[in-house]
Amino acid sequence: MVASVAARIRKVPGFPTLDVERGFLAPGVRLLAGVDEVGRGALAGPVSVGIVVVDLQDHGLLADVRDSKLLKPDDRERLEPLVREWALASAVGHASSAEIDTLGIIGALRLAGTRAWFEILAGGVRPDVVLLDGSHNWLSVPSQGSLFDAEPAVPACEAPVHTRVKADMSCLSVAAASVLAKVARDRIMVELHSEYPGFAWNENKGYATASHRDALRLAGPTPYHRTSWNLI
């Protein structure tokens, strides 16, 4: 971790900080996990969930990191190893297109997040609290009476989960998690492109571009497409 170096970096307007995260610091709450997902709206490929753990008492800022959607691909690739070095712990979990079709997107997000969560735990780090991008807590098991009770059971993290809309814009831990998830998923889609080059996944990363939909009309879906979705 490069907290000693990062601590000397000043806040830059328009870039996320750890101000929100430090608001969770309390007795018994020191390690925070920032969580974000990528690939939720794609037609093909996995959904991926990144987790970055920070020490609320001993973590400085990391320059240039922001929501992955605002970064150029080369910048994301450059920042990915820096994020991993800066984080106390980090992981990315994936759920396949077949798992999305079986579990639904919320259940698949939870599965991907759970895989990343258990990787964090396996490394000997146990976060005290979770900060999740968005308005819906898809990471925890639904409570009784939830609209999502019909989902197949998927394990989930046991730490308290707090949601925040656009956390990837204001919270450095979440923005960092988005970078890791985006880089990991993009690499998967580039690899899958070699199997099905006609869909240009090396460029569209499985999202619903016009050319991607045209290829679907011509060739039909691949095993990596989410066949439960309206693909065309």
From TrEMBL:
Family: Belongs to the RNase HII family.
InterPro entries: RNase_HII, RNase_HII/HIII, RNase_HII/HIII_dom, RNaseH-like_sf, RNaseH_sf
Cited NCBIfam families: PRK00015.1-3 (NF000595)
Ranges of residues in domain RNase H type-2: 30-232
Essential cofactor(s): Mg(2+); Mn(2+)
The species this protein was found in: Arthrobacter terricola
Protein's name in the database: Ribonuclease HII
Annotated cofactor note: Manganese or magnesium. Binds 1 divalent metal ion per monomer in the absence of substrate. May bind a second metal ion after substrate binding.
EC number(s) from the headed UniProt entry: 3.1.26.4
